[in-house]
Amino acid sequence: MSTSDDHEHRPSIPLVNDSLLSRESWKIFQVMAEFVEGYERLIQTRPSVSIFGSARAKEGDALYTLAEAMGRQLSDAGYSVVTGGGPGAMEAANKGAYHGHSLSIGLNIELPNQELSNDYQDISLRFRHFFTRKVMFVKYTAAYVVLPGGFGTLDELAEILALIQTSKTRRIPVILINEPFWRPLFRWFNNTLLANSMIDEKDMKLWQYADSPEQVIQIIQKFYKKTPPEMISPENEVL
To answer: Does residue 232 form part of some domain?
Structure first.
């Protein structure tokens, strides 16, 4: 039980400098501006597919070549292709989509020591904040395609799995490319997370594997056979 003496030793709340408070308040409007521009420019791009993968892939690499083919075939199949707008697998997917029949979209993030955005974007958005950018990846997408990548790719994968798991977004196809690359991670999911009741058995069914653009398109089309992405139910639209 606390006493008056306890409260006397609690630190006092410091006064906030007016200029600091003003600067922090203006950040709210920066965030709002990013959301507004994202909504306005992306709402007409459906159906779309978000593609993630390593920024370190080099032109000529197997990963780069696969990402380019993925972007092209999805674009020709009628899906706008959304990436992080950077180099590597993102550039490759944008390049493929740019030369296809649908839109190539880049959600670029401002980072120190970051290479310039790639040149293959019909719609190019710039974000200061990761969290607003993440919303744009999820908001209008019909599917997530995740190629091998590093921390950024893992971050986006964990984000969509958590959103679907908690029903904060509608269920969409989450498609992992190159099963051998991902198998050790998901073996750990099964042997550690599931074994310790950190996730449920059903959570291990939130993703699928594919090896080619053709398989990815088949998975997406099968998923939306009964409910096309542009005909999402009002209940799911609320989510």
So the answer is: yes
Q: What is the pTM of this model?
A: 0.84
138-186 pLDDT, tens digit per residue, is 999 999 999 999 999 999 999 999 999 999 999 999 999 999 999 999 9
- 86-111 tens-digit pLDDT: 999 999 999 999 999 999 999 999 87
**With contact defined as beta carbons under 8 Å apart, do 117 and 124 qualify?**
yes
Beta carbons of 159 and 187 less than 8 angstroms apart:
no
Q: Is residue 59 part of a domain?
A: yes
- Structurally, the chain folds into a number of domains equal to 1
Residue 46: give the domain boundaries.
28-238
Distance CA 117, CA 121 (A): 9
In whole angstroms, give the CA distance from residue 126 to residue 105.
Answer: 11
